[in-house]
Amino acid sequence: MTHLDEQLQRPLQPKDGTAGIERPRALVDALPEDPEPLLELAARHVVSSRQFDRATLIQLFRLAAQYEATPALMHLPLTGKILISAFYEPSTRTRLSFESAWHRLGGAIMSITDPKSTGMAKGESLVDIAEMFNNYGDVIVLRSSEDQAVYQMLEGLRIPIVNAGNGIDEHPTQALADVYTLAKWRPDLFRGEVDLQARIRVGIIGVPSRMRTVRSLLLMLGRFPEAIREVVIISREDENFDAGQREELEAAGLVLRVVDQLDPVLPELDVVYINAIAWVGDTFESLGTGLHLTRNSPLKPGAIILHPLARGDELATDLDDTPHNWYFAQARGAVFVRMALLTSVVRRISAVMDTPEQ
Amino acid sequence: MTHLDEQLQRPLQPKDGTAGIERPRALVDALPEDPEPLLELAARHVVSSRQFDRATLIQLFRLAAQYEATPALMHLPLTGKILISAFYEPSTRTRLSFESAWHRLGGAIMSITDPKSTGMAKGESLVDIAEMFNNYGDVIVLRSSEDQAVYQMLEGLRIPIVNAGNGIDEHPTQALADVYTLAKWRPDLFRGEVDLQARIRVGIIGVPSRMRTVRSLLLMLGRFPEAIREVVIISREDENFDAGQREELEAAGLVLRVVDQLDPVLPELDVVYINAIAWVGDTFESLGTGLHLTRNSPLKPGAIILHPLARGDELATDLDDTPHNWYFAQARGAVFVRMALLTSVVRRISAVMDTPEQ
Amino acid sequence: MTHLDEQLQRPLQPKDGTAGIERPRALVDALPEDPEPLLELAARHVVSSRQFDRATLIQLFRLAAQYEATPALMHLPLTGKILISAFYEPSTRTRLSFESAWHRLGGAIMSITDPKSTGMAKGESLVDIAEMFNNYGDVIVLRSSEDQAVYQMLEGLRIPIVNAGNGIDEHPTQALADVYTLAKWRPDLFRGEVDLQARIRVGIIGVPSRMRTVRSLLLMLGRFPEAIREVVIISREDENFDAGQREELEAAGLVLRVVDQLDPVLPELDVVYINAIAWVGDTFESLGTGLHLTRNSPLKPGAIILHPLARGDELATDLDDTPHNWYFAQARGAVFVRMALLTSVVRRISAVMDTPEQ
Q: Where do the segments described as Disordered lie (chains A, B, C) (predicted)?
């Protein structure tokens, strides 16, 4: 019997511990429930990480953890609701993550995956498309390679829109997935005061001014400065920040440092966030040598690696079966934190949490 | 706080009056219920506006208005039914309108949006595709740039098909949406005898022989000649009608006039139907100068504008926040009138209306 | 009143006998129920016809027949489950067949129909895509033009995958549909010992080494050698079998013969399986003259024709309304046998059959 024959005969294994339900359960236990911030998300657009305050983030992570720990939490609270999944910039991974979240809540989906067949391609204005979406769905998820598309569409909307990546501007739900992963890894960081010794050093390999995932992540980390000793940007660019970007983050309480070598700083880092290098264009790509992680990289014991995926050569697969691999848990958690956000935005929090009135 | 910040903080406004529920409620009250004509639509193909008699149209509009006024009218009567949404000619707007209608009724959808990947592209006959659809779905919505496709497919079908636009021939469900809008605007026009003074003058900017929306609309207006004083075609073509087309409309009781200037006739018109000019090709496009509407056009007070959308330059956005704008209500109503039609065609009228037997 | 007018007025006819419920009912009656083999399919990958033993096939056909005979067998047992329908090689027919099966069971679907927009196109590894799918769905249906894709993806999967055609290797669910058709046609062939006189001669027009449907069908026929007098391969290739392919089939008990002329052997055949000739490339296509079926072909009375469809010129439409046409029933049955398989794979057999425990 060959290896493949064995594999076909063997029942699939249950999910491993990291991706399992122990950690989300611990997160639920660690944080007190408060429906109020999620009720206030009702019918709100979600465009930027800036819109989330600390209390809202904590409740989103708590509800996400409830979904993750208890798949049958509630009986499909979004039955009859329609998501318009508009990916004018194609992205199978992000699209499926949102659509899986919506389907798990019982909702229906209309997908736009071929930009060339849309009115936008024929010159229809975003405001007119927004008016169409008002009538046809209950919430929109939009990805566009144009920074301004989500803002233009928003002017005509009476239903909420969720930004799933707009050019090099923001990708706030990816940041939710990133920080939710941190919350499952170390719930103690999210309970308020954190001892100096317990605070973490976060390394981010990427360019804050040119990577939407990095921009949104930094803004969201800025809601928890008491948990973060330092954020180290590892980049070989000359200009890493837009005008005012670094100042905004420092005003939020983050301590920032920029270095151009990865391995020297790696032993200090508790969290290493790495991104697909190709995203930032040709220049950085050629400079990328050395900015990659393998099993032989000098990682701190206990350090975790995050990556928004899909990955390229910058993150070696030999790390997959090490305890540093939290990027798979991060991808898995993305579904649950999007479930929590979407439940809030379409006003169904009262179906899944005890709420005073409603 | 910037304008955008304010907008993101502010809960979304409820829908305005025109798009709201007052008018559909008034329509429901104005027309007596009769399930019989809708029961007779069971399992019927819908290809042409010619298939709808007056009584059927009135009951479709009444049920559409019930759906529009009472979103929770019934608990997802099409659960378990499958729509095959086959857009061999891409159209996001019409596709989403049908799919939204179907999802709001609880049904499931299989979409074909990439004509190049289909058997048809590989030379498979429409009759064979029809046989496949028989086995896989409960109803088909077909858009094709070929006039004859729907007729060919129909030969092999045992499930109903709905024509969502076939070349330059017909687009009967767009006409349903158009006339449903008139019914919400002026229910009195649809109750039988109409006083001479109350009758309306309808202007249609377009070419009846070459625009499927115009062809289907005219046929449907022919079911209500007692409500219409005159139909004015505004066109700069020499030949506006196919052989027999004008005669058929006049035999139905419509009074037709053709003019080539818009502004002189505009002050007389109660309803102005305008279409995207590019649809009819290069010749008309260059002649189109002057055949457009703006806030400064000499519209009659109380006149309403209809447009099947998407629009081009022919309809200025400065009309959007005037009372002339009924084109947004028209797009919204398209979902509900398609819900009414689809409920009828898949034999579920007894789930939403009181019926004698069944 | 024209022919078309009549057709539009006439209610659709119910399905005819062949495609009706009499034969699946007879199949259900002919075979004893045993949930055990289907329970053992729980969470298993389905890649090859080799994985199905005789008892499993019989129970799949029996459950398929129950679904076909009793559309309302159970109340949507897959509600809340998500299918990832990944057609990296486009195929509307097979995709819709799987998606219809899943929807009829109440499940939700996320489709990937545009290979160019996926991570795979951007160089993402199949193992990483598998990890993504683990988190986003409950089962995967994969079609790929690469033989190895399904095997590579399988290495990273914790959810089951169903092979919907991998290059020229296999298409096991098509074989399920083929043999299910035989079971409805002649249930007596599947009850164990078969009289010599009752055994059938099966002709297969195609090349076993180069057609995945033929490869998978032959393997599955090998589970029922007692019912088959002979399998005749009609082909004009020099090399019809891969190394070991013929030997494996003969070891299973099949008697094989290869001929290069169709008409001389046709009067002996009880079952004629024909395939779209274009599938095997230019060489065979030019040799294909004569390897086609029409109403005038010397078919044995009572013989049935199978074809996986879509068809080309090799199968004339003048056969459609003869009793030889079982290819339409075959296409119809494909939905039900896939329903049976998917119900098993996602562990929901206990929802539709009486099971001892669970």
A: 1-21
What is the domain range of residue C304?
Answer: 172-332
Instruction: Please indicate, yes or no, whether residues C134 and C231 belong to a single structural domain of this protein.
Output: no
C-chain residues near A309 (CB < 8 A):
128, 132
In the numeric block, the tokens 């329609």 are attached to A82
Residue A8 is assigned to a structural domain of this protein: no
Sign for the pseudo-dihedral over CA of B273, B276, B277, B281: negative
Instruction: State pLDDT tens for residues A39-77.
Output: 999 999 999 999 999 999 999 999 999 999 987 666 789
Q: How many residues does chain C have?
A: 358
> What is the distance between the alpha carbons of residues A243 and C127, in angstroms, rounded to a whole number?
40
CB atoms C331 and B135 under 8 Å: yes
Q: Is residue C355 part of a domain?
A: no
Q: Nearest by CB to A124, which of B12, B103, B310? A: B310
Residue C147 in tokens: 């033989």
Mean pLDDT of chain B, nearest integer: 90
CATH of residue C76:
3.40.50.1370
pTM, 2 dp: 0.94
Model confidence pLDDT, tens digit, residues B209-257:
999 999 999 999 999 999 999 999 999 888 999 999 999 999 999 999 9
Q: Which residues in chain A touch residue B90, judged by CB atoms under 8 angstroms apart? A: 114, 116-117
| Residue A129 domain-assigned (yes or no) | no
ipTM: 0.92
The pairing of beta strand C108-112 with beta strand C200-205: unpaired
B91 interfacial to chain A (CB closer than 8 Å): yes
d(CA C117, nearest CA chain A) in Å: 6
| CA proximity to C117, closest of C109, C107, C129, C108 | C129
Cβ-based neighbour number of residue C85 at 10 Å: 24
Residue in B59, B34, B70, B358 with CA at minimum distance from that of residue B180: B59
Q: Give which of B344, B353, B356, B354 is closest to B41, Cα–Cα.
A: B344
Q: Say yes or no: C163 and C234 in one domain.
A: no
Instruction: Return the structure tokens found at B129.
Output: 């595709």
d(CA B304, CA C50): 67
Q: Are residues C48 and C165 in the same domain?
A: yes
CA distance C83 to C103: 9
User: Number of structural domains, chain C?
Assistant: 2
Q: Do A82 and B93 touch (CB under 8 A)?
A: no
Distances from the Cα of A357 to the Cα of A195, A351, A354, angstroms = 38, 12, 9
DSSP state, residue A250: H
User: Are C136 and A106 inside 8 Å of each other by CB?
Assistant: no
Residue B265 touches partner C, C-beta closer than 8 Å: no
Same domain, C130 and C229: no
What is d(CA A149, CA B96) in angstroms, rounded to the nearest whole number? 20
Query: Could you give the CA distance from residue B306 to residue B180 in angstroms, rounded to a whole number?
Result: 11
Nearest in space to A293 (alpha carbons), one of A205, A228, A218: A205
Same domain, C301 and C342: no
Report the distance separating Cα A63 and Cα A27, nearest Å: 10
Indicate which of B6, B7, B9, B12 best probes the interface with A, i.e. most A CBs within 10 Å of its own CB.
B12
Query: C191-221 burial by CB neighbour count: b if 16+ within 10 A, else e?
Result: eeebeeeebbbbbbbbbbbbbbbbbbbbbbb
Contacts of B53 (CB under 8 A, 6+ apart): B37, B223
Does C207 fall in a domain? Answer: yes
Q: CA-to-CA distance for A264 and A275, rounded, in angstroms?
A: 19
> Does C286 lie in the same domain as C150?
no
B353: left (phi over 0), alpha (psi -120 to 50) or beta: beta
For C332, which of B44, B79, B135 is closest by C-beta distance?
B135
> B300: helix, coil or strand?
coil
Alpha-carbon Rg for chain B in angstroms: 20
C165 plus C176 within the same structural domain: no
Q: Where are the alpha helices (DSSP H) in C105-165?
A: 126-136, 149-154
